[in-house]
Amino acid sequence: MADVTLTTPPDTPSRWTRFRDSDLLASFLSSKLTMVSALVTVVMILGAVFATWIAPTNPFDPASVDLMNSLFPPRWIEGGDPRFLLGTDNQGRDIWSAILYGMQVSLIIGIVGVIIAATLGIGLGLLAGYLGGRVDALIMRVADIQLTFPAILIALVIDGVVHAFFKGAPREQTAFGVLVVSIGLSFWVQYARTIRGSTMVEKNKDYVHAARLMGVPAPLIMLRHVLPNVIGPVLVILTINLALAIITEATLSFLGVGLPPTQPSLGTLIRIGNDFLFSGEWWIVAFPGVTLAVFVLAVNLLGDWLRDALNPKLR
Predict the structure, then answer these.
(1) Distance of alpha carbon 10 from its chain centroid, rounded?
(2) How confident is the model at residue 44 (pLDDT cuts 50, 70, 90)?
(3) Pick the CATH number of 74-314 from 3.40.50.620, 1.10.3720.10, 1.20.140.10, 3.30.460.20
(4) CA separation for the pair 276, 270 (Å, rounded)
(5) Which of 272, 292, 290, 243 is nearest to 103 (CA)?
(6) Domain-by-domain residue ranges, the chain?
(7) Are 79 and 152 in contact (CB under 8 A)?
(8) Closest Cα to residue 106, out of 151, 44, 156?
(9) How far apart are CA 252 and CA 109, in angstroms?
(10) Could you give the CA distance from residue 304 to residue 41 in angstroms, rounded to a whole number?
(11) Secondary structure of the chain as H, E, C letters
(12) What is the Cα–Cα distance from 250 to 109, expressed in whole angstroms?
């Protein structure tokens, strides 16, 4: 009788092992520019998250602001005060502290706005791609119409509608909602079109037909089976749109639709500093502007790397 040798199946590699040996990590480590961009992004996000502990003062607290300290230049320039690294603004607020807190506000608005846009776009894209027909035509025509309205115009319309319905509400209380809804309604089309195209391909595959034959309802098929297989490109759009959302918030705040000067974002700081640019107090607008530009550039570089790394044709 022949001997039967039993072999044990190889151990399944852990998630960390799979990630360590993945092409994505290898691509990341092979690009010094991408690593620098990731480092800059992480440092700036951590600075915004821990602004309460890092910032020397709270620029939003009137008790910590002294008008006698207004318009001090940066510390290394003649006339600067050692207490204020990047100088002060017209209200005596420390520019370094204001940038940290302003970055925090800009990130919150950008992240919430992108979440709204992604949720709306993914949901409508799934419906359009899976159901097709009139539903697809209706959603895509709405998307085409929405593309004709820029984010600035949408924000102005929403701001006007909000104050028409809530006449007693001050602008300071509605500014945050106006900004995040405007960003969400401006960016959902990209998600919808991307998800729609991928869903139209996935819905004709065998695993979707098998789920239909088993009697699985259409909503569950879209959420459990189709969505996990079409979500990849959305990660790239999320990364790039975060930078665009922060730029949009800065633009709207610069135009006066954003948050009030008492709770400034980066855009509000730039708008305030622009009033003093030609009088010689350049630091009020320069440092928030550089912060915004560096963060957006770093996030965009990460988005470009992620797009190339997830593209199988470039591997």
Answers:
(1) 42
(2) very high
(3) 1.10.3720.10
(4) 10
(5) 292
(6) 74-314
(7) no
(8) 44
(9) 12
(10) 14
(11) CCCCCCCCCCCCCCHHHHHHCCHHHHHHHCCHHHHHHHHHHHHHHHHHHCHHHHCCCCCCCHHHCCHHHCCCCCCCCCCCCCCCCCCECCCCCEHHHHHHHHHHHHHHHHHHHHHHHHHHHHHHHHHHHHHCHHHHHHHHHHHHHHCCCCHHHHHHHHHHHHHHHCCCCCHHHHHHHHHHHHHHHHHHHHHHHHHHHHHHHHCCCHHHHHHHHCCCCHHHHHHHHHHHHHCHHHHHHHHHHHHHHHHHHHHHHHCCCCCCCCCCCHHHHHHHHHCCHHHCCCHHHHHHHHHHHHHHHHHHHHHHHHHHHCCHHHC
(12) 10
Residue pair 139/128 in contact (Cβ under 8 Å)? The answer is yes
Give the contacts of 41 (CB within 8 A, at least 6 positions apart).
295, 298, 299, 302
What are the pLDDT digits (tens) for 115-160? 999 999 999 999 999 988 899 999 999 998 888 887 778 877 887 7
Given this model, what pLDDT does residue 21 score? 61
CA–CA gap between residue 254 and residue 216 (Å, rounded): 50
User: CB 132: neighbour CB atoms within 10 A?
Assistant: 14
Tell me the pTM: 0.84
Distance CA 89, CA 54 (A): 19
